[in-house]
Design a protein that fits this description.
7-stranded mixed β-sheet; 326 residues; elongated; alpha/beta
């Protein structure tokens, strides 16, 4: 685990490839929003994203609950618009993985894949990563029919029998998307009712291609070069059966991407970051927004609002540092 004890500001400062007032970690819609506000405010800010801009938003297909788009908007199109808007105001971005965030006396040292970066304040918008089932065959067949992103891989399995694991919004949204391509979609859920929004449930129940396997879990994924079968266990009868399948899409939740944070950042039992209403964490100068938060609604609109709050709080914090030094 990273050392949570601050190091003196004089140590390792020469290692930093650059020094910023603010670094935003994460380039999803939440991070891009914070970056947009920072760029418009002409702050000395940098956004770091390890992958492509968009984050978990790219897992969705069509966004229908974002205000201003009466007919909905493709997730990729919305990401492109937000990214373009932020860049228009001069947002600086780098493709980099943050490995360690080290508090120091008056600032932070970020150890990244492109070198060490120093900053006075940080906004964490890293969201989460997909949870795994942890069953035999899952890792072995990842990328060979086992997937965590329907919009990424769904079209590859046209006319196949597909299994979706989960019962929340993401699982049902993925099942609906996959129904466009699949011969049949089976949704395996450990409960006897869904947790997804009612409108998504209505659409799934109305689909002639989607069938539900209730009170059941996937215990094994089998195949050679590609997925061929899944083993499903009925939790009520304790009976297991083998079912042919060409792909398995797993949508059972997220775990926070916070492995780079020091131990003294307060988190809940699941590891999600705890903040106050101003998006301040337990560590001065460190803020967080979006899906990485404890109690997050995992909604685009709330994440964007939290990013705005976090940026405003970071500005106030930086202003206070200037006031103290003057």
């Amino acid at each position: 685990m990273p050392n949570s004890n601050p190091m003196p500001a004089s140590e390792s400062k020469e290692k930093c490839i650059r020094y910023h007032d603010l670094v935003i970690i994460g380039g999803g819609a939440t991070g891009l929003t914070a970056g947009l506000y920072a760029a418009r405010a002409r702050m000395n800010a940098l956004l770091l994203e390890a992958r492509l801009p968009g984050g978990q938003l790219l897992v969705a297909d069509v966004i229908e609950n974002y205000p201003g788009f009466a007919e909905g908007i493709m997730a990729t199109d919305l990401v492109e618009l937000i990214d373009k808007q932020a860049r228009r105001f001069g947002l600086k971005t780098e493709r980099a993985e943050v490995e360690v965030l080290q508090p120091r006396d008056g600032d932070f040292l970020l150890v990244t894949s492109i070198g060490d970066i120093c900053t006075k304040a940080v906004i964490v918008c890293t969201g989460g990563r997909h949870k795994h089932l942890g069953v035999p065959g899952e890792l072995e067949l990842a990328g060979k029919g086992v997937s965590y992103c329907a919009t990424c891989d769904g079209p590859l399995f046209r006319d196949k029998v597909i299994v979706v694991v989960g019962g929340g919004n993401t699982a049902i949204d993925e099942a609906l998307f996959l129904a466009r391509f699949a011969q049949r979609v089976y949704v395996v859920h450990r409960r006897d009712e869904l947790r997804a929004e009612k409108i998504l449930q209505e659409r799934a129940f109305a689909s002639k291609k989607i069938e539900f396997i209730w009170s059941s879990i996937v215990t094994e994924i089998r195949g050679g070069d590609f997925v061929e079968k899944v083993v499903i266990k009925d939790l009520k009868s304790e009976e297991s059966r083998e079912m042919p399948a060409g792909a398995v899409f797993i949508a059972i939740g997220m775990q926070p991407a916070v492995g780079f944070l020091p131990e003294n950042v307060k988190r809940d039992e699941a590891g999600f970051i705890i903040t106050d209403r101003a998006m301040r964490t337990s560590l001065p100068g460190l803020f967080a927004a979006g899906d990485v938060l404890s109690g997050s609604l995992r909604q685009l609109t709330t994440g964007i609002g939290e990013a705005t709050t976090a940026l405003m709080s970071a500005q106030q914090y930086l202003d206070s540092l200037g006031a103290k030094s003057s």
